[in-house]
Amino acid sequence: MPSIDVCFSPELLHLYDLKGKAVVAVDILRATSTMVTAFAEGAANIFPVMELEECRGFSERGCLTAAERNGIKAEGFDLGNSPFGYMGGHVQGRDIAITTTNGTRAIRLSEAAEEIVVGSFLNLQTVADHLAELGLDVLVVCAGWKGQFNLEDTLFAGALVERLQDSFSSENDSALAAVYLYQTAKADMVAFLRQSSHVRRLEHLEIHKDIEFCLRHDVYNVLPVWRHDRLVDLRVEELER
Ligand code: 3SL
């Protein structure tokens, strides 16, 4: 039986051997929720990059550029990091380069893995089905906040472990803790997260609707996976084959 484990921060990645594993990179508020939404809205490829300048350079390749730092859209970029900014048809068929404070970093630091999947509550079941099909050992990599633990990514990890509990073993306390937390929170996650650091940070920016949206389960059948230098939606690739 394959295993599922949880890494609470990219700063802890050195403790794990990613070779041969599937990583699920997650930044619920809001990077991975936003990427999933962008694919659901028809984006072609997403290039997650770590630095603002590198991201800006992608405009010469015809990409839309998206950047967030400390919760705020960076100046001079086409898009920010709100899922609602990707709705309405303007990302359909477009390539997007994106850099965010923590989410894009979690993805790029996981490149040694066999497979990287981008997870969010919005595509939770699609991710779970893909992992069950792959049958690889899984590590959920929580983006956290600037190296520190956060609640919302851990809740996603717990939800995923719970959905996979019949076909995956989980021996580590991190997976167990994530499930306990999710079971405590799931009846009302918005209320549970009210005192969390990032929700307080985002509420200060008055983006409550982003928080509520990013906590919705199974809204999209979208499966962003890392291929060479970019994310593609595997569901679209399979349909085109
Ligand atoms: O840290 C990140 O990658 C962002 O998702 C943070 S924010 O939700 O845009 O504030």
General description of the model:
Pfam families: 2-ph_phosp. It is an enzyme of class 3 (hydrolase). This is Probable 2-phosphosulfolactate phosphatase. It catalyses: (2R)-O-phospho-3-sulfolactate + H2O = (2R)-3-sulfolactate + phosphate. GO terms for molecular function: 2-phosphosulfolactate phosphatase activity; magnesium ion binding; sulfopyruvate decarboxylase activity. The protein has 241 residues and is of the alpha/beta class. It has one domain (4-226): ComB-like (putative 2-phosphosulfolactate phosphatase, Alpha-Beta Complex), CATH 3.90.1560. Helix content is 35%, strand content 17%. The protein has ten helices and ten strands. The protein has helices at 31-40, 52-57, 103-108, 124-134, 151-163, 173-185, 189-192, 197-204, 208-214, 234-240; strands at residues 4-7, 22-26, 46-48, 64-69, 72-73, 96-99, 115-119, 138-142, 224-227, 230-233. A four-stranded parallel sheet has the order 1-8-2-7. It has a four-stranded mixed sheet with strand order 3-6-4-5. Strand 9 (224-227) and strand 10 (230-233) form a beta hairpin. Helix 4 crosses helix 5 (151-163) and helix 5 (151-163) crosses helix 6 (173-185). It starts with a strand and ends with a helix. The model has no long low-confidence stretch (mean pLDDT 95). The structure holds (2R)-3-sulfolactic acid. (2R)-3-sulfolactic acid binds next to loops.
